[in-house]
Amino acid sequence: MSDHKFLTHEIGSLAKPPWLTKSALGRELDESDIEHARTWGEKVGVEGHEELVESLQRGDADLEEIARWSSRYCIRLQESAGLEVIWDGEQLRSEMYAWAIEHATGFESRGTVRSFDNKYYNKSAAVGPVGLREPYHNDEFSFLQSVAQAKLKIPVTGAYTLAVWSYDEHHTPKEGRLGGGYGRPQEIEARRELTLDIARNLIRPNLEALIGLGAEWIQIDEPGASTEADELDIFVESFNVSVEGLDCMFSTHLCFSDYDLFFPAIEGMSGCRQYCVGFANYDRRELGTTAADRPGYEVISKFRDLPYDPILGLGVLDIHTDFIEPPELVRDRILYAVDVFGDPARIHVCPDCGLRTRSWDVAYEKLRSLVEGTRLAEEALSQAHASA
Amino acid sequence: MAELQAFIPGLYARSEELVQATRDLDRGRTSAEAVEEQVERDQAELVAAQQGAGFDLLADGKLRWQDHFRPLLEAADGLETGALTRFLDTNTFYRAPKATTETPSLGAPIDQRYVPSLAGPRLVTLPSPFALAHGTAVTPKAMALGVLKPQLDALDAELVVLAEPFFAHDDEADLGDLADALEALAGGPKLAVWFTFGDARKVLEGGAADLPVEGIGVDFYATRPTDVPEGFSKLLLAGVVDARSSLLEEPRELAEFAQRLGERAERIALVPNGDLQYVSERVAREKLTRLGQARTASVEAAA
What we know:
The complex is a heterodimer of chains A (about 400) and B (about 300).
Chain A: E1 7-8, H1 18-24, H2 31-44, H3 49-58, H4 63-81, E2 85-86, H5 96-102, E3 104-116, E4 119-132, H6 138-147, E5 151-152, E6 154-157, H7 159-164, E7 167-168, H8 184-212, E8 217-221, H9 232-243, E9 249-254, E10 274-277, H10 300-304, E11 311-315, H11 327-341, E12 347-350, H12 360-387
Parallel strand pairs in A: 1-12, 2-5, 4-7, 6-8, 8-9, 9-10, 10-11, 11-12
Antiparallel strand pairs in A: 3-4
Helix pairs in contact in A: 1-4, 2-3, 2-4, 4-12, 8-9, 11-12
Chain B: E1 3-6, H1 16-26, H2 32-53, H3 70-75, E2 76-77, E3 79-86, E4 93-99, E5 105-106, E6 123-127, H4 129-133, H5 140-153, E7 159-164, H6 175-183, E8 191-195, H7 201-205, E9 215-219, E10 232-241, H8 251-261, E11 265-272, H9 281-302
Parallel strand pairs in B: 1-11, 6-7, 7-8, 8-9, 9-10, 10-11
Antiparallel strand pairs in B: 2-5, 3-4
Helix pairs in contact in B: 1-2, 2-9, 5-6, 8-9
């Protein structure tokens, strides 16, 4: 256990900067937006950011180019924070659900629905057979390959989440459901048909295209996976259908769920090499490395006991608050996980989820704290080994 | 034919304009005053739509509520907002109530912004004592006495609908505990318990008709009409509009269903099977309209 080094990585989204969102809405930028581009460019070392600043000042920047700049900023932000495996915070995507649906056939928008508080998403309905207009992460991946210095991990929204976040007008009867006439077994069968349709005809072709471009690690995002406790086998089946026989490291991201629900269903998901899971949201903020100190991490022993020894992507940052986790708190969360798992090689360190609801200032400080806390954990393990 | 009403309890969907305004507020692009003006416009349009649909009670749509509990948690001593938690099987989340005492109490009733007066007879939706206590160590009766009772005493409404999304999903839930809690709320406005988004068979078989309230709400997308006891004497809030589906109901089918329910219940109110915030405002508005059409068709058929 001596001198173990934990891999640190991001999860997915980061907030879009004001100079991108305002430009996308056709709004005029003010001096604070320009200053944002200037200071962050300097702070995280974005090469040539002066070109962006000048372009924003002149007001003649092309929107796609502004988005690519935003992508460069997020790459450098994470590299500068010290993460070892990164993505661009989905700066080139509209949003994890909408981006996939926009590039699919067989869906129609049904308007905006609240996710929580003042956060919303545009929810679509499946209205016909699902198809792929074109692989929708290729351009993004090729661009990021040219920019990133750290390793890349590509987040791809999974089939079950796309299905469960959509209405289904295609497989659901228009009439006859009232009065309990359309029961849960029929609902589940409809969901299975839609989910597997998405897995086969939308997700898998995308994965194949990314692997063809050299992708080595693809994260299947499934924040909706535990939405229905009696549909977990559909989630597992859709993951397997999406990745089976493909040569790549596949992981999945689960968040804000009753994680107990996943067991034993995910015992059949042996193609998943890493489970990246949010725990900090449920945990206390006080220091300590006992089970009583770390109630948010109670379930991790179940991931340890899976029959195929996956790695645990340990969520140590609560992405729903501006609270900056002290490095010592990050350290203790890691040390507790190591204590439960026994093998530190089966622990990676990451935020609970994407940080897009936090400002860059907050996200940056949280990520720096994650990296520093990880180093503290490595030191603590090293010292413990030396004194043993 | 049973006496028939229609209304829409619960959290209603925010308009695209209000969505944008609240997003802008979070990003510092607009003022709280501008958002408030948009809320007022949304609320006025919602009330007009309900009046146009011929609804019997008007609802404000709880457009300022961030979730089912938030204003009460913020106003109560001994309650806090807890972890962000998925609401049943939706992609919508809420801050779960977190108790710091076994006897929380409402310091002062929540203000007019959260339970506004309306131009007509109104209903107000609050969480049921069981829902408010769900996941905390506080008993439903303690929630009723300490938090909901002071709020009810300050309310002037034709009907208060107590939304209960968890009871029907909880195998351990005890109808006796709920009855005790509801008993503690007696003496104020008329009450209805609205069992949303779930099969209410167990509740109905367990004696929901004896709960000390005026009305019982049932999700008829998960419950069979034959599960309603014959001669049901309470107001039956019949959840006939599916608030989790974008499919639009046929008013004819709803009216026919109301007629079937009339064989078992003497007083029926056509309502959604849960909060309409789970569809967009565009879809919610169309569902509201169709609910009104179903009410009209049923009343005309009876006449």
